[in-house]
Amino acid sequence: MPILPIDTGRYGTPEMLRVFEEETRIQRLLDVEAALALAHAEVGNIPRKDAEKIAAMASTRHVKVERVKAIEKEIKHDIASLVRALAEACGASGAYVHLGATSYDIVDTANALQLKEAVEIIEKRLATLKGLLQKQAAEHKETVMIGRTHGQHALPITLGFKFAVWGYEIQRHIERLNECKKRVLVGKMSGAVGTQASLGEHAQRIQELVMKQLGLQPAEISTQIVQRDRYAELICLLALIASSLENFATEIRELQRPEIGELFEAFERAKQVGSSTMPHKRNPETCERICGLARIVRSLAVPALENVVTWHERDLTQSSAERFIFPEACILVDYMLALMSNVIANLRVDEQRMRQNIELTQGRAMSEAVMMALARKGMNRQEAHELLRQLTIKSELEKRHFREVLLENETVRSRLSVEEIDSALDPKNYLGTAVKQAEKFAKLG
User: Fold this and answer.
1) What is the pLDDT of residues 325-338, one digit of tens each?
2) 40 in catalytic set
3) pTM to 2 decimals?
């Protein structure tokens, strides 16, 4: 009976779940065994007809998962069980199954096959999210909102600029993922301790042929396993992607608070329920789910890093951990990317509320713009800063608009006209290159 929420169907996309199903896992192991047999035939180690028989039978159509599990229950070794089940299906040709290989020649190469599929799916998800952020950046490049630092009103930005910041972060993840593939997606045929002694004089050629058949690169060198710094790099990268998604989700959650009310997750008005007891609730539950799952993904980086450590040429401490961390990290990050893409695609923007929120500080958020205007008129920058610090405090304590306080100050009026003060207080006039930066991202290839 399913227990974990991935198994119950609560989390995960069909594409990624398929990659890590047990039948798919068994098939990838069989694919490696088939490639090994064909490589042996290519170098003349075994008859080609036997290699072709092994390749033909190396399928879950012939080697049933149930049979592999039944043998494993008896002999307590997963790969030996697979080998026996395949050999049974191959008849006399079964004598050549797994020739010269150690278990982790098969396991680590199958790992690479699964991770290759998983990475391709994640790359597509990242590209989709980047495209959605580009669309939003273009649409909202001039949508003015307040920028916040330390949770406080800082200076005006545009919503498109915020989307561009997020989008470039996703672009960096695309680049990181593409870069790490050459280190992560490797297989091996190196025998019990990495010396390839059991594979004979054609050992390196056999490894090359197997990897070519499977579409992988051979590890430059390995022991009984490929070194786990490779996998740790990928899991840490997936944790980094998850953290970025949590960052975006947290911002949306904050901006959906009624006190702010600038951005909102889509809400299916016809049927969606926000609370079992409070009919009015419209919770940012998708973003909250992303934040919660990010914590799980980050936690997987710890065993991935600890798996780098191994006794001598190998021990078995990595095996049990990797049965969890590979599928969980890939399934959850893929799912989180799908969720975030849906959130961004259907985000509701309240531009009127954004304009209202800018005025919450009665113009004081534009103090830097006034300071810079005074500096351009020859006033010492430090003196201008201190003057405006005092005037913002006066405005706040007296609950008067900053404009009024500025207009009655002799130092300010001696340097700035009413028109110049009003221009400095207009958020649209103090966006710097925000619009251009949003446009640049929107056109990014």
Assistant:
1) 999 999 999 999 99
2) no
3) 0.95
